[in-house]
Each structure stands twice: as C-alpha cells, then as structure tokens.
Amino acid sequence: MNVKEGTFYGVGEAKLYYRMIQPMSKPKGVVIVVHGHGDHSGGLQNLLDKLTEHQYIVYAFDLRGHGQSVGTRGFIKKWDEYRGDLHTFRQMVESESANLPLFLIGHSLGGVISLEYCLVHGTGIRGLVAIAPAISYKIKPIEKLLIPILSKIKPDYTITSASNQSLLTKDPKMIKRLNSDGLRHNTVTPGLGQGLLQTVSNLETNADKITLPLLLQFGLKDEITPPEKLRDFFHFIGSKEKVMKEYDEMRHRPFDEVGREQFYHDLIDWLEVQLSK
C-alpha cells in the first residue's frame, strides 16, 4: 500500500493534517474517515488498514484541536468549523479520486460530525457509516446546565480528565497502544460541549431528513455512548436503506475490540452491497 501525509487548510485557514492510504490493487472506492474526540487519524490505524486491504483508498484527517492539526485541544468556536473543514477535505479528496464512489465513516464525535454533514452536504455520498456516534453521549445534569453559560463566558476553558482506556476496548494490546499514544488527549471545552449539544438536538429533530444509505454499528457494552438512545435515533432516521449492527461484548471502539472480525465483516459486506447497486 502507498501512504501519503500532508496538510490542507480548513475554515479560517486552519492548517489541518491528513493521511491517505492507497491499495496496491485497483481501488473499488474511496472512504473518508472522521475520528472521535481526543483521537486522531493515526489512532484509527486498524480501521484504515482493513479498508485498504479491501481495495478502498482511505483518507483521514486530524480534526482541529486534535492530533497534528492546529488549535486549542478539544476546542471549536462554532460547529460550522467542523462541517466546513470536512467539506473542504471532501472537495480535495474528490479532486484526487477520479470519480470513485465516495463513502463517509465517522466514529463517536466523528459520527456526529458525519451525520450532521450529511444533513447539509449528503448529495453525492454513496453511503454513511456511523460507529458509536456520540448521539447518546452521557452528560451530567449540572454539565448540561453549565455548558451553555460557560460557552458564552469562556468557550476555550479547558478541562482535562483522567484517561480510562478500558472504557474503549477490552483488548490488552490495544489498551497498551492507546495509553502510549502521545497524540491522544482528554481535554474538553465549553465551546465544543455546546456545539455538540446543539448539533445532537438538531440531528434528533431532523433525523428523518437523513436519507442516504446508512450503517450504524455499536457495542452493547459501550458506557460512553449507551446503546438505548442509539436504537431510538436509528428508528427515526429517514433512510430507506439503513442497517443497524449491535455487538454483544464490545465497548466504544468496536474496530479495536476483542472479536472485531465480525465488526469488520459486517462493515465490508455493507460497503460491497452499496457498490453493487
């Protein structure tokens, strides 16, 4: 496989890092992958490699405030920055991918970014995969009360929590890798928190307007994005071609979880079905 790294300029000329992985054989399609909060594109290496192995060109970038991209860790001024960055990235990808079928995959926060993006710019995307999207992110009542206030007073105020990788996966090798990954962070800000709250509310109100083919995947042992609300959200999605896959013993990162073979089997099969239409 061929790997390329580079940068592009997002909203407000923010310099954002990306990587592209191209299979050695003729590609079937191109996939844009959007990572979750505190993560970075390289943190999804297992997922990127599996997609490349199955003849997809894969593009992934570090969200602003994450990884090797610029910005205060875990901060956005407004949600439009995430949407605009992704749209600029998509335009670059499409200019390089010779009209191949385009798919979008988002995990956790990246799942919310991808879902909201498809409400606005979904035309031309062959299918969307949402992996444990932060639709059902657990938030304390006091946090829900304080976030809107703090987002107006000090939106870039940083709060760093202790990491607990066992919430993400049971795989000891993956936990070790996550713990040693210096590009990961556990920092949040009121600006991001408020943007996420508003966007999730918008998605819940307008779920019926998400009409492109969709695959929703999540683990039933996920304590970060509990499955009950994800099931409810799936019910209201307007797509006539939607599939939900649940995994009994998996946590927040099913692509890095023990028994992930089934997760990947379902993902690749779904992509192949979309290509056959």
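The record above closes out task 2.4. Task 2.5 opens with a second protein, given below.
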Amino acid sequence: MSQLDLGILGNGSFSALVDDHGRIVWCCLPRFDGDPVFSSLLAGEGEPEHGFFDVVLEGCVSSEQRYLRNTAILVTTLRDGQGGAIEITDHAPRFRDRQRIYRPLMTVRQVRPVAGDPRVQVRLRPATNYGARRAPTTHGSNHIRYVLDDTTIRLTTNAPVNYILEERPFVLEETIDFVLGPDESLETAVATFARRSFEETRSYWFEWARTLSIPFEWQGAVIRSAITLKLCNFEETGAVVAAMTTSIPEAAGTERNWDYRYCWLRDAYFTLDALNRLGATRTMEGFLRYIENLVRASEGGHLQPVYGVTQEARLTERTVDLPGFRGHGPVRVGNQAHEHIQNDVYGSVVLSATQAFF
C-alpha cells in the first residue's frame, strides 16, 4: 500500500522519493514536472505492476531508514527473520567537479550485506507516459537500457545482469552497485564511480550545511528542513517548486488533487525569507533572478499565480490514467491556476525583492 513516509533524493536537477523499504516510488525526468519514470506512488492499492525500483530482502520482517547526518544521502536497513540484514544507500550525485557543480540526472544505489546470508531480489521496472506501460529493454554484459517515450536511461551495475532482467533472487555476498542515469558509458568501474560519487556528495552536503546560519536549538531539524528546501530548487533557472509530486489528495474522496510541481509566486516571499535567514545566499539569489525574469517577460505587467520551472506560462491541465494515491484519483498533469487572476502575487513579488537588501 502506498504511504507518505518517504525519503527524498535530489541534486538540483531532479528528485526521487523512496519508501521505508527502499523502494523508489516516484521520480520524474528530465526535471520535476517531467514524465515519472517511477510512478507507483500513484498506482492505487495493492502491489504495482511497474513504475518502481526496489531491492527485496527475502523474509524481510523489519526496516529502518535514516539520512546520513547533514546530507541528502538516504540509508535503508532491511532485516529478515534469520538474522540477515542488508543496507541500501541512495544518493543523487552533487559535487564540485571541473570548476562546476556536477548534478546529473542520476541515482546511485549501493547495496551491502550487513549480517547473515541475506537473499535479495532486484526489481527495476521503469514506466513511461505516466505509468501507461513498462519500458522495453536492451542489455549488455554490465548494463541494461530502458527505452522510454522521450529518452533512454541506462542501469550500469556489477550485479549479474540476467538476475536483474529475470528478477531472480540471489545471495548477497558483497556490495553491489547500481548507477541509473543517462544512456552513457561510465568512464570507470561502476564500484569506483559509486564510491567516489558517494564520498564527494557527502562532502558537498557537509560543507553546504556547515555554511548555514542556524539557531542553537533544533539544529538537526532546521538543517534537515534546509536541505529539503534546497532539493526543491531547480538550479538551472533558480525556480523553487511547491512540491515534487502531483495529485496527492488534500482529503480522501474529494478529488482535490492538484499538480504542485511548479512555482507559486505567493510562496516566493516566505521561501526567500527562509533562505535569507539560513544564509543560503546562492539559492536565494537564483530564485530572485528567476522572479526577475518572470517580471521582465510579463505582458503588460500581468503576473500569473504559477509558472513552470523554465518560466512556462501555459500549464494546460489534463488527467492521466494512473489510479491515484491509494486509489484516490484523478491524477492531474498541469494546473489550471495559471489562468486565474490572483492580485496578491504583486505584493508577494514586491516583498520578495526586499530580500535583496537585507
């Protein structure tokens, strides 16, 4: 059954949501409002047919999940009834490389045995066109290609490829690595890449958290909230989205299910104020530039309540055939609010601009 106790992965280019058993249940590519490669979060009740990526521990009886302190790296521990345990470490690479921030459309997953002789089953089932069908595959000796409607993604791994294709259980004797991203070959061995990416990403988040201005009390909660806010930032343009998901119902059975993967100007002041207080200056400045570009591009000074992450003004709303979260549809793509007149947005923009002077 779908639930909302979810961990967040991201790097400023995309995001993914992971449930408490390590299943990736939501991930849109190539950006926050893209077609979800993993869409099982909105697949209704029961076991989904596709739209997820998980590592199933045979006989699993318990799970624990945590972030590595002051990072966006997620660790899920699964335990079976025979004393076996595995640890799944997930991250989206983000670090400085060649004098720029490296933030690819990529998820790195490392799975290691912790205790006993755990037996696992890897199930990777990307979907396309909002869960309409499972992506067809081609494969080589160390990779599997998943052909989507608009792009192709590649899994590179040191696990047996045929075990993944056939979803065949096997004993996990050593760490296995999965790099899921663009359809490109890695320049190094997958284990080397995964290890370096983990270490560099961890160092990046440590350094970023260290620069924040945070109160003496509740530091852990404030840092975690700051990281989550940063993960809502589409760094290329500076936009900050209201949410990473669409159509999570406001209340069961109401059909008040909206697509919030966009930028609402009425939220801008509060977001910028929080970023300013945190000392997250670059993220704040990027969002201010995004708003400035919207204002300069507006026709006759008219501002909409909501825009896309690359300043799209037209966000035509439609419904798709996903069942919805726990079966509570409809699932909407786009948001009709772009046609609304909400005059409070002008005040929000003016207040947002004041953050440049404090």
